[in-house]
UniProtKB/TrEMBL annotation:
PROSITE patterns: VOC. Keywords: Metal-binding, Signal. The lineage of its organism: Bacteria, Pseudomonadati, Bacteroidota, Cytophagia, Cytophagales. Residues 45-175 form the VOC domain. Transmembrane segments: none annotated. This is VOC family protein. Residues 1-22 form the signal peptide. Pfam families: Glyoxalase.
Length: 178
């Protein structure tokens, strides 16, 4: 009886470990280095990216209707309107909308290569499980694509770029092993 219980526990641990490993590999496609929980900065993790836009209502409409993001919280700050939004099925990454107030015009790119000449933040990236299906749905919703999808073998990713109404670039990334 003891052996059966030990065997069941070992099998359960193996299944859990294998499942976690597979999920970890599926999420990144890379052999990730070990986490460093002993670091004095171990409490740092990703949270959100802020996107500066001129029109709050249009930004909220675009993110909620085109991308199906959910509004987490909205608030005013000085002469701006702000909001946190999260993807339809993920609470670990948010987009912060910083809208209105005084802004300079931003260039809208139609060519991905041309966009790489500007220093600073370039894009945000969102993982998808099926890039073709996601792009087809976004195109149906009238979302602007920037260039054509492509496969980058060195990172085992199929990639595509879309843009919000102000030209902020969003990369869509699917892990694909060929």
């Amino acid at each position: 009886m003891k052996n059966k219980i030990s065997l069941l526990i070992a099998f359960g641990l193996l299944t859990l470990t294998t499942s976690a490993f597979a999920q970890h590999q599926e999420n990144t496609g890379f052999n990730m280095p070990a986490l460093n929980p002993k670091s004095k900065l171990a409490d740092i993790s990703g949270n959100h990216i802020g996107i500066r836009v001129p029109n709050y209502d249009l930004a909220i409409k675009w993110w909620t209707e085109k991308m199906d993001f959910r509004i987490i919280h909205q608030w005013p700050y000085a002469d701006e309107k702000l909001a946190y939004l999260a993807p339809p099925n993920d609470n670990s990454f948010w987009v912060e909308i910083l809208a209105e107030g005084k802004l300079e015009a931003q260039k809208n790119y139609t060519d991905l290569g041309e966009s790489l000449s500007k220093p600073g933040y370039h894009h945000i990236c969102m993982h998808v499980k099926n890039l073709d299906a996601t792009l087809a749905e976004l195109k149906k919703r009238g979302v602007t694509t920037v260039g054509e999808p492509f496969y980058l073998e060195t990172i085992t990713r199929k990639l595509a770029f879309i843009a919000d109404p102000w030209g902020n670039l969003i990369e869509l990334s699917e892990v694909v092993f060929k």
